[in-house]
Design goal:
alpha/beta; 4-stranded mixed β-sheet; two-stranded antiparallel ribbon; 6 strands; Phosphogluconate dehydrogenase NAD-binding putative C-terminal domain-containing protein; 6PGD_dom2; 6-PGluconate_DH-like_C_sf; Pgluconate_DH_NAD-bd_C
Length: about 350
């Protein structure tokens, strides 16, 4: 299937994910492109679904930038793929607002003071805002964390309007909370893809839904909603799952050296050579499940505004099954679902 190429900087998916554009790239542009007419301190709140480690890396970019001035304009900012190796650059090097046509003269560096940008870690948890029957607004939670001095720069009225909640005074807690929340929601949807698709190929999908209706109706309802809403967003969830994996590994301690063979007391039940990520890469494998949906099924072509396929649970698993068959025929790696699942637990 043709891989979807569009990427946006923000989105309104059902769990508030905004991992669609590299956060480091956005941060680099922000630290080098600000309005030269502004004299106020700026606050950059990264609301992308990223790991605490990634958030700390981005924060260090702002720290380096705020402490350095008068860097020659001939130097371009480093590539966003390697923010930790970036050389300091000046916030005095700013462009005019988008409505200005004239180019900023280089001599402006000597007349404009640098702008201090404070960084806050953040995340969006919950569905997009919606109006309740009583005319009140249901709002997602905007969680933020970071130095108290930076928190105080956030306008109190704006914080109340956006339902901002402070969850820590360092960089990382907000991203950790977002990752842990999304792991349960989007992780469960990924398990539903695996479970219902396998039941379909084994001819027991009706029996599975019947048993869930009897013994766990809440799970069936969640799976139906999650699976049918997932197709247009699958491509955006791939990197988010990898960030969740990094969160669990780095922050939670669930690294490969802990969850590998030694963690099982030497009792390794998989075939040697199976999988590529080891036991510590569960959500890396889940990322591959969403990548399969996005790249190798017709579901990857779905758009939220114009849905055609995957509007029922049964059609979702039919599309995924067809995608697996096509990929196997093209010489795929024995099916992405099977490889992803075995690779995560071998």
């Amino acid at each position: 299937m043709k891989r979807r190429s569009e990427r946006v900087s923000e989105n309104n998916d059902t769990s508030g994910s905004t991992t669609t554009e590299p956060s480091a790239a956005s941060a680099t542009r922000t630290t080098t492109t600000t309005d030269s007419t502004s004299t106020n301190n700026l606050v950059y709140i990264d609301l992308n679904a990223i790991s605490p480690k990634t958030a700390r890396t981005i924060a260090s970019m702002f720290s380096n930038s705020n402490s350095t001035t008068n860097t020659p304009t001939a130097k371009s900012p480093p590539p966003p793929s390697s923010p930790s190796s970036s050389s300091p650059f000046s916030l005095a090097r700013r462009s005019f607002s988008f409505h200005r046509r004239e180019s900023e003269p280089q001599s402006v560096e000597s007349t404009l003071p640098p702008i201090t940008i404070s960084f806050l870690d953040g995340g969006i948890i919950g569905s997009p805002p919606s109006l309740r029957e009583d005319k009140s607004w249901k709002r997602p939670s905007i969680v933020i964390s970071g130095p108290p001095a930076a928190q105080q720069l956030v306008d109190p009225n704006l914080a109340r309007l956006l339902n901002v909640r402070i969850v820590g005074d360092t960089i990382g807690p907000a991203s950790a909370l977002k990752s842990c929340f999304a792991a349960l929601s989007k992780g469960t949807i990924a398990l539903a893809i695996l479970s219902f698709t396998t039941a379909h190929t084994c001819g027991v999908l009706p029996a599975l839904t019947d048993h869930l209706e009897e013994f766990n109706p809440a799970m069936l309802a969640y799976a139906r909603g999650g699976l049918t809403n997932m197709p247009p967003k699958a491509y955006r969830w791939v990197e988010e799952m990898r960030q969740i994996n990094e969160t669990f590994s780095v922050e939670g301690g669930f690294s490969e050296d802990v969850l590998g063979e030694s963690g099982h007391g030497g009792h390794h039940h998989g075939t040697e050579g199976e999988g590529s990520g080891g036991s510590g890469q569960v959500f890396d494998a889940i990322a591959e499940v969403y990548k399969l949906v996005a790249d190798d099924t017709v579901l990857g072509e779905e758009k939220t505004e114009k849905r055609k396929r995957g509007t029922t649970l049964e059609d979702v698993v039919e599309c995924v099954s067809e995608g697996i068959v096509r990929k196997k025929r093209k010489g795929g790696n024995n099916g992405e679902l099977e490889a992803a699942w075995r690779g995560s637990w071998s």
